[in-house]
Amino acid sequence: MAHSRSTILLVDDQITNLTIGKNMLKTFYQVIPVASASGMFETLGQIEPDLILLDVDMPDMNGYDAIRALKADARYAEIPVVFLTAKDDADSELEGLDLGAADYIRKPFFAPTLLKRISRELQIVNQKKELLSAREGYRENLAIVESQVREKAVEVFRLQNAILTNVADLVELRDEHTGGHIIRTQLYIQAMIEEMIRRGIYDDEIGAWNIDEVVSSAKLHDVGKISTPDSILNKPGKLTPEEYEVMKGHVLTGVDAIEKIMKNTYENNYMQHALNVIGTHHEKWDGSGYPMRLRGRNIPLEGRLMAVADVYDALISVRQYKRAFSHEDSRRIIEESAGAQFDPALIDAFRGIEGEFEEIALAHENA
Predict the structure, then answer these.
(1) H helices within the chain, ranges in order?
(2) How far apart are CA 82 and CA 55, in angstroms?
(3) 143-183, pLDDT tens digit by residue?
(4) Model confidence over 186-196: pLDDT tens digits?
(5) Domain range for residue 351?
(6) Is residue 165 part of a domain?
(7) Cα 30 from chain centroid (whole Å)
């Protein structure tokens, strides 16, 4: 039996019943007697009882109407209600239970039975409170842990990004003809993604991305060139077929490097984007690219984006084997390659922001 000073609201229109009930319960509980349903609602505006003992047969508003009003009000819906009644038919009891009553006690009261039934209901109330408190504590602890995990993830991402940026910079330094290529291609991709979001192009796929990770991973697209011989990387002229095959090997070298990193890291979302960019930015929409001759949407979207950015930047830049094309000529070549080299949907987005590509190229011409 619970001996805590729980508060019980005793509602009955008969003063005798209020007196008897209070005397039975006052040793163990704080009992507040109320003579009507309207009085009950007035009292509820001032206190929050742990339990309501509610008479069924009352004038003005009977117990059934009163419990309907209680359950309809979010402030009181969770307070357990025990009906008190002189009725002894099963239908009346069933009606009360259907309306949400926790129990149904018949008059006249028998003190031990009344106390036992109330003790049981209050035990349930206390257990619910303990569970709710534990759940709130769990939520608070979970929120703290999630915050710590997010902070750690940001810290790891920054460290990872800094290391890989340095690696990408080393690759670019080795290539005498690609100054500023990394920053420009990242900015092209950023602009493309923003335009695709505006147009609703591949919005389901992009919606699942961390866009900062995708844009950042683009810097690694040529990381495999770190193993390409200088004699090929900086050859002052067109490559022979054999040299071109060696140059193409930078894709698989880069893929191998990222896969090794992924085996030793827990959070691989960033690396997966990098893997897609590195491994597929030389694939072509019609299946004629390398190294896997992937076709259409079998090419990851990151690779298809990188292909547009990479080719545009190569076209507007001086290379050892070619002059720099104008923006207009580069735009025309890109657009004419839709459906062959490039995803037509991406070229639709490119058309909408080709002016931004030109601005990026001019702003970072000597980066």
Answers:
(1) 15-25, 37-44, 63-72, 90-98, 111-174, 181-199, 203-207, 211-217, 230-233, 241-248, 250-262, 269-280, 301-316, 327-336, 344-363
(2) 9
(3) 777 777 677 766 766 766 676 677 777 766 666 555 688 89
(4) 999 999 999 99
(5) 175-363
(6) no
(7) 47
Tokens of 53: 């003992």
> Which among 174, 176, 156, 154 has a CA at the least distance from the CA of 164?
156
Q: Are residues 209 and 118 in the same domain?
A: no
Answer whether residue 168 is part of any domain.
Answer: no
Q: Please, are residues 118 and 29 in contact by the beta-carbon 8 Å criterion? A: yes
Are 173 and 326 in contact by the 8 Å Cβ rule? The answer is: no
Token pair 């303990």: residue: 130
Whether 54 is in a domain gets the answer yes
Provide the domain count of the chain.
Answer: 2
Give the number of other Cβ atoms within 10 Å of residue 212's Cβ. 12
235 and 346, same domain (yes or no): yes
Nearest-angstrom CA–CA distance, 250 and 323:
24
* pTM of the predicted protein model: 0.58
